[in-house]
Amino acid sequence: MAIAVANCCFSVLSSTVKFGYSVSCHRHLATSTSHASLNALSPKATNNKKRAPKKSSSTSPRKFNAGKDSVSQKKLPGRSEDEKSSLYADVTSGRGDIGRLHSTGFKSFGTQRKDKEFQLDSREQKVEPGILQDATFLNAVVKVYCTHTAPDYSLPWQKQRQFASTGSAFMIGDGKLLTNAHCVEHDTQVKVKRRGDDTKYVAKVLARGVDCDIALLSVESEEFWKGAKPLCLGHLPRLQDAVTVVGYPLGGDTISVTKGVVSRIEVTSYAHGSSDLLGIQIDAAINPGNSGGPAFNEQGECIGVAFQVYRSEEAENIGYVIPTTVVSHFLNDYERNGKYTGFPCLGVLLQKLENPALRACLQVQSNEGVLVRRVEPTSDANNVLKQGDVIVSFDDVHVGSEGTVPFRSNERIAFRYLISQKFAGDVAELGIIRAGKFMKIQVVLNPRVHLVPYHIDGGQPSYLIIAGLVFTPLSEPLIEEECEDSIGLKLLAKARYSLARFKGEQIVILSQVLANEVNIGYEDMGNQQVGFLCLPCYLPLPIYWHVLKFTNFRF
After folding, report:
1. Measured distance CA(304)–CA(296) in Å, rounded
2. Nearest-angstrom CA–CA distance, 269 and 262
3. Quick one: which H or E segment has residue 544?
């Protein structure tokens, strides 16, 4: 049965395969590493970390941003055939009863402070065909040099060896630049260089939007901004509109321009943040290093940010651009709160209502609505929605039985698109049918609380060592480093399908045992879940004694 997921909430089943999840299918983030060799002129991101990779027998597909060569290619947890296609009711995907779309690969103006929200600039910058190389807006595209130092999740008290990568960014005014979040993830140092200049300037990361793969940078040097003209953000393009992607990809040091058309506009999976937001599919080439670079229309307006590609033996020329609607949401969020708070979610697991018998059972007279299968305990919807409710409208917009809503003139788009237009703390009015009766309720939308986070806030994982026992919260990067086989099926299933019961809840595991005289014979233990003072009963008594001394530590 087709199941829909709420944005930040859960995964869903659908009758149509969105991506072919086979071992040969990959989605790549676009960032180019400074160590790329000429015999590796492939758009595929390559890992430049000097650390030997751990073996894994998993045949799960990988998903990557098309951004930096040096970005590690992180794998996706395995999913069943039923879970390969999904319909989400919210903005970012998560865990539910039937799984989720998971991706942890690396993956995309400063605005003047005004009382009103940021608006897209409708002014046109006419660009004659054939003279794009002379257009002044190309000078607003800069090259990003980033040094990364990622944490070691298996040994949380230390970091991995640093590596360097390059990407792209562009000026948006007020001394600020826009790029992809995966381009500056775990950054130690960020530098930028303008077109035609040989000087690199230090940049500072002001905000990161992991779920939307956007980062805001600032450069304090006044010399860097001399003669600079920021880009104007355009509106959402139409199908078959011409598009030009500009950036600094593999294959050379100077600026690169590729052209194509808009192939598709729909809610798509963002590899870096494991989220589902509006995306623009184009057939223009996007290679490692293009990440963070702008995409222009024929009027010279920026219509989005290049950020990832889809690689498969069965498909080609599939690149993705973050549209200006998502970009403006990120900027407005930052302007409102002084920081990025994230895209909200509804917090429910939904099911399509295409079956007439099911609609009759639920007393739904018309061919519309989606069934609430499960409500996330930490969401506000838990106070007003119940299992078995049928959502038929969102802010007076009717929801179809396939979980879609009207989009532009004669198009339809996933229901979660409407949720992505809201901000954290906004109130949405839902029209529901409960036991055959129609009613309207109000729900406060907030970002999802992840039981097992995709990214660690602050960058460095927390840990506690007692009597040689190493305790640390379970996270997706840790699962990836340790490999799914070593985590164990029981713990992995809990990470994939369990929901947080309250804010701040974590799955704490005993990751390993450091050899000590008090734990002789237990050195091989590892990756086992524990609770508050609920250690495995077969541990020696001295270990319990050491743990009891740390009564302020709560799991």
Report:
1. 7
2. 17
3. helix 541-548
90, 187, 211, 213: the catalytic one is: 213
**Which candidate in 103, 165, 269, 291 is catalytic?**
291
The span from the CA of 101 to the CA of 83, in Å, is 8
Q: Give pLDDT tens digits for 271-291.
A: 888 889 999 999 999 999 999
What is d(CA 228, CA 327) in angstroms, rounded to the nearest whole number? 21
Cβ neighbours around 360 below 10 Å, total: 10
Q: How far apart are CA 475 and CA 367, in angstroms?
A: 41
Copy the structure tokens of residue 28. Answer: 């790549």
pLDDT tens digits for range 102-138 = 333 333 333 333 344 444 444 444 445 444 555 678 8
Query: Which helix (H) or strand (E) segment is 306 a member of?
Result: strand 302-311
Residue of 28, 148, 182, 450 marked catalytic: 182
β-partners of residue 181 are: none
Of 318, 292, 270, the residue nearest 68 (C-alpha)? 292
What value does the mean pLDDT take over residues 75-91? Answer: 37
Alpha-carbon distance 99 to 79, whole Å?
Answer: 8
Active site residue 213: yes
Q: What is the pLDDT of residues 211-226, one digit of tens each?
A: 999 999 999 999 999 9
